[in-house]
Amino acid sequence: MAQPEIGQQAPDFDLPRDGGGSLKLSDLRGKPVIVYFYPKDDTSGCTTEGKDFSALLPEFEKAGATVIGISPDSAKSHDKFKAKHGLSVVLVADEGKSAIQDYGVWVEKSMYGRKFMGVERTTILIDKDGRVARVWNKVKVANHAAEVLEATQAL
To answer: 131 — alpha (psi -120 to 50), left (phi > 0) or beta?
Structure first.
């Protein structure tokens, strides 16, 4: 599926989250939401990204925003990942890849000449009305969370 464009309604999801229960995107209307898609718990880039967003979480909250990380890992895996690295952001499990596909981030990747399907590291900033305000594709982790915070504060 194609990635939603700026100004379009962000696709809703209702998925299991870390710590139990579930999270429904539409329940967060009225405040900005940052959804960052990442490939796998406990890998170096994903760990750095989670730590960076967690370190800036108080600033995101001051801006009235919620930060959600989504990967195809299980909620149980998310719990271990958060505990191991002291992450404070919400992590949502998309084992069926429904949201990952709705947001167009399930793509063909290539490593060492081998092609495979995987999550393209992508961040979506959703405004208080539930519309896509900004999209970062093929994210490079260094300084990314700070750039997203700046964009969130500018909303």
So the answer is: beta
Residues 61/84, Cβ–Cβ less than 8 Å: no
What is the tens place of the pLDDT at every residue in 35-94? 999 999 999 899 999 999 999 999 999 999 999 999 999 999 999 999 999 999 999 999
pTM, 2 dp: 0.94
DSSP labels, 18-78:
TTSSEEEGGGGTTS-EEEEE-S-TTSHHHHHHHHHHHHTHHHHHHTT-EEEEEESS-HHHH
Contact 30, 103 (CB under 8 A): no
Are 57 and 23 a contacting pair, CB within 8 Å? no
Q: Is 39 a catalytic residue?
A: no
Beta bridge partners of 118: 107
Among candidate residues 10, 35, 46, 75, the one labeled active-site is 46
Residue recorded with tokens 């960052």: 36
For helices 75-85 and 44-55, angle between their N-to-C axes, nearest 10 degrees: 70
